[in-house]
Design a protein that fits this description.
Elements lengths: L1 E5 L3 H13 L4 E5 L13 E3 L3 H7 L2 E4 L6 H8 L8 E4 L6 H8 L5 E5 L9 E7 L5 H12 L2 E5 L5 H9 L1 H18 L4 H22 L3 H8 L6 H10 L2 H18 L3
Parallel strand pairs: 1-2, 1-4, 2-3, 4-5, 5-6, 7-8
Antiparallel strand pairs: 6-7
The structure holds NADP nicotinamide-adenine-dinucleotide phosphate.
């Protein structure tokens, strides 16, 4: 199977690296706006001179350009679109109906919203399928993203919410890791160790949520000894409105996602 990545930017590279490290895909091809050699870590990716050539070659084509670039890219490759080609759009905001109009063809189109940890096989991808997508095609899309992490399938009207929560989510987490590790430095822990402590606390806690199936509040209660130190920290976080701030941040990102293709 030939897998094409149109737009080898941050996300395109993430998919290319993830599929090499964790997948079974042997043939990867890609384009960028400015044709150039693949960087050494992407030596396994064949770089095509044009999007049209890439579309002709691909069995599955990941579209990884910005939402505002999607129309021109789809119009450009429209003459090469054919039965049997599965398009997977990773652009935030742009709806399947719109993509189909630009492609001028009733093609199977899946929308995907992956996130950065796909690079190391620990990603989260949310998928939604157009009405022309068969069960086999959705399974194929699912299997490609499953090698990069976990997959959830939702109705298309939830894709902006998924963007604000899980595609943007790593940025919120990096901010938390940075802040916690800075606190460690303030308390005298060497920076490298402080970052390890902060990142591993988040990693382990998230893993426990996923593996225990317990409500996060129940797990929080387990850490919070009566009259201990955790409850003092939680009090400070509640005073700083961390819970409602995070909630509002996700909602803000989802609202912005809905506007991106407007
Ligand atoms: N970054 C994320 O975490 C993330 C997560 C989920 C979804 N997404 C979605 O993924 C898409 C790409 O985001 P990104 O962060 O990867 O952006 P990015 O780093 O700017 O990458 C976009 C890539 O598209 C290429 N490109 C632009 N126009 C092109 C054209 N006409 N033909 C071929 N290649 C073209 C650019 O090439 P040049 O380098 O030559 O300009 C660049 O390599 C967006 O729609 C975004 O919503 C991103």
């Amino acid at each position: 199977m030939n897998v094409g990545i149109l737009g080898l930017g941050t996300l395109g590279r993430t998919l290319a690296l993830g599929l090499r490290e964790h997948g079974h895909v042997t043939t990867l091809g890609a384009t960028t706006r400015t044709p150039r050699e693949a960087p050494p870590e992407l030596a396994h990716v064949q770089i095509f001179a044009s999007n049209v050539e890439l579309a002709r070659w691909s069995d599955v084509l990941f579209l990884c350009v910005k939402p505002f670039q999607m129309e021109s890219v789809l119009r450009e490759i429209a003459p090469e679109l054919r039965e049997g080609l599965l398009l997977i759009s990773n652009a935030a905001s742009v709806r399947i109906e719109q993509l189909g109009k630009w492609a001028q063809w009733r093609l199977p189109i899946v929308r995907a919203m992956p996130n950065m940890p796909c690079r190391i096989g620990a990603g989260m991808t949310v998928l939604t399928a157009g009405s022309d997508v068969s069960d086999e095609e959705l399974s194929l899309a699912r299997s490609l993203f499953e090698v990069l992490g976990r997959v959830a399938i939702v109705e298309e009207n939830l894709m902006d919410a998924a963007t604000g929560l899980s595609a943007c989510g790593p940025a919120y987490v990096y901010l938390i890791v940075e802040a916690m590790s800075e606190a460690g430095v303030k308390l005298g822990i060497p920076r490298k160790t402080a970052t390890l402590l902060a990142a591993q606390a988040l990693y382990g806690s998230a893993k426990l949520v996923l593996e225990s199936n317990l409500h996060p509040a129940a797990l929080k209660d387990e850490v919070t000894t009566p009259a201990g130190c955790t409850v003092d920290a939680l009090t400070v976080l509640e005073e700083g409105r961390m819970r409602s701030t995070l909630l509002n941040a996700v909602v803000a990102a989802a609202s912005r996602s809905a506007e991106l293709s407007a």
